[in-house]
Write a structure and sequence with these properties.
Elements (H helix, E strand, L loop, with lengths): L6 E8 L7 H9 L7 E6 L4 H11 L3 E8 L2 E7 L16 E5 L26 H13 L4 E5 L9 H11 L2 E5 L6 H8 L6 E6 L5 H8 L3 H14 L3 E8 L2 H13 L7 E5 L22 E3 L2 E3 L11 E3 L5 H23 L6
Parallel strand pairs: 1-2, 5-6, 5-11, 6-7, 7-8, 8-9, 9-10
Antiparallel strand pairs: 2-4, 3-4, 11-12, 12-13
Helix pairs in contact: 3-4
């Protein structure tokens, strides 16, 4: 399970509850931090949890993590709401994400699933992918996203992508650095009409990109972008940024290179996985996108190895996985509606 990092305030509730002094302590803690910062509350009374969750929802803060250790419960909340557009408004089940392996040729310092050359390979495998693709087509999935770690670490990635593309238009997330030899041959074998590549490039110049991804990676990635375009594929450029200024600089870069809005993705660092700073995201912040890994079904790709976003350990039948995510989403919405009815003035 992920350990929440970068907590600004640790608040020991002791024997206090919301009825006996915890609320003033919480308010005082928030006065000393900034929007987006994290506060941890620890107590031996698990009954504080529902009260804390209700208070967070009413005050537009977010409970992002809960864990029990040695008879104590520790809740972590984010001061303020998540930025807009954390999750897009699209039909649940229209997009399907596959984590094919988890190992990677890079060790990006903000990777939301801790991929690296040292990460153990946890493959979905071609047989499972073939069944997923068949059942996804039957369920009306209209987009499949294939991600890794780095998918092109796999010898059978061509078969995996081809199976997915037969079911629905498929986007492959990659760092674009491995297209040589047999991997280049695999790239050239793929359908230009059914396969899009989303390649990660974090900044207009090497410094910022390489501070996250390693020395020499910017030039190798740009070479990969040019190669994939030259092979006739649609390429989307994806930047992971820390600030609005970084986002604006990347937009200007994309404008210069005539990259249209439909082929650009700019997102903030999520405080998950390897990241030690970024946006702390809870389930309530994220519109669910069914995500499959070798470990099971997850609420969203940004937390595809975190227990708080695990929906089911069973992938098949895929219809049951989709139904499980829908039930979880309905429970989340019902909880919000129920809380909204608690406070009535008339």
């Amino acid at each position: 399970m992920r350990t929440t990092t970068n907590v600004k305030v640790e608040l020991d509730a002791g024997s206090k509850t919301f009825a006996s002094g915890l609320l003033p302590d919480l308010i005082a803690a928030l006065r000393h931090i900034r929007k987006g910062d994290l506060v941890a509350v620890t107590s031996g009374d698990p009954g504080i949890g529902p009260e804390l969750e209700t208070w967070c929802r009413f005050t537009r803060n977010t409970l992002v993590d809960t864990r029990n250790e040695e008879g104590l419960t520790r809740w972590v909340l984010r001061y303020g709401e998540a930025p807009e557009n954390v999750g897009e408004d699209r039909p649940l089940g229209s997009r399907l994400w596959l984590y094919t392996n988890f190992d990677c040729n890079l060790s990006c310092d903000y990777c939301c699933v801790r991929s690296s050359p040292k990460a153990p390979r946890r493959p979905l495998g071609i047989e499972r992918v073939r069944r997923i693709a068949i059942e996804a087509a039957e369920l009306g999935v209209n987009e499949i996203f294939v991600t890794g770690g780095e998918p092109f670490m796999l010898a059978d990635i061509g078969e995996i992508i081809t199976a997915c593309a037969a079911a629905a238009p498929t986007t492959v997330l990659t760092n674009g650095m491995l297209f040589a030899g047999s991997r280049l041959a695999t790239l050239r074998s793929l359908s230009r009409e059914r396969v899009t590549f989303q390649i990660s490039l974090d900044s207009p110049t090497p410094e910022l990109h390489e501070s996250h991804r390693g020395k020499g990676t910017w030039a190798r990635t740009w070479k990969g972008i040019e190669l994939v375009r030259a092979e006739g594929f649609r390429v989307r450029l994806a930047a992971t940024v820390s600030t609005d200024l970084e986002a604006e600089e990347f937009r200007s870069f994309l404008d210069v290179h005539q990259v249209g809005e439909e082929n650009r993705v700019i997102r903030r660092i999520a405080l998950r996985g390897s990241a030690i700073q970024g946006i702390a995201l809870a389930k309530a912040d994220l519109v669910p996108e069914v995500t499959l890994t070798a470990e099971g079904v997850f609420w969203h790709p940004v937390g595809a190895e975190d227990d708080d976003l695990l929906v089911s350990r069973e992938i098949f039948p895929l219809a049951d996985s989709f139904a499980a995510v829908r039930r979880a989403f309905d429970r989340e919405n019902e909880h919000q509606r129920r809380l909204a009815r608690i406070f009535n003035c008339a």
